[in-house]
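Q: Predict the assembly, please.
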Amino acid sequence: MRLIKLGGAAALLLTALVAVEAQQPRPRDGDLKEGAAAPDFTLKDPEGTNAVKLSELKGKPVVLLFGSCT
Amino acid sequence: MASVGQIEKLYANYKGKAHFYVVYIREAHPDMEKNKFNIPQPKTLEERQKVAKEFAEALKLTVPLLVDSMEDAVGKAYAGWPDRVYVIDAEGKVALKGGPGPQGFAPAVKAAPAALDKLLADSK
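A: Predicted assembly structure:
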């Protein structure tokens, strides 16, 4: 009886884990390849005042660091 | 985003020779109490801008920040989530695409100087 309960608990836990896993987005590698044109964009700073357009950054390489706080 | 120390070092060494931007995208792990930063996923652009600012201040990040749209347009175009490094040459082509974070991030920051040195040497 105890074993069955344990088995049931394990199954529940597994179901829960699978559910959580399914909700988590996974990193994707995307189609962008080295040597390809970098997609152009215009984004603003956190103040919302200064806009930067990638294709207007002239004459020097650009280092883009994607990320968030967490 | 880990490795802010490494990012700042790269920035200090190359900021005169390359443009640098941190593109602040969708939070990777919002609402996690065990995290150093337990923050909710921003729901509006204003919230995202505010979190971006706080993030830069908390981590003493001096690289200029750009905030992605709420549709994550740029993050998606570059497969930037959860974090990723790119070096783009002066003509707008991808010279270095780092691996996806978190594992791929630090190695790409380490690989960036060689990629930048090559681009800078080629442009002379």
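The mean pLDDT of chain B is 93. The longest strand of chain B covers residues 19-24.
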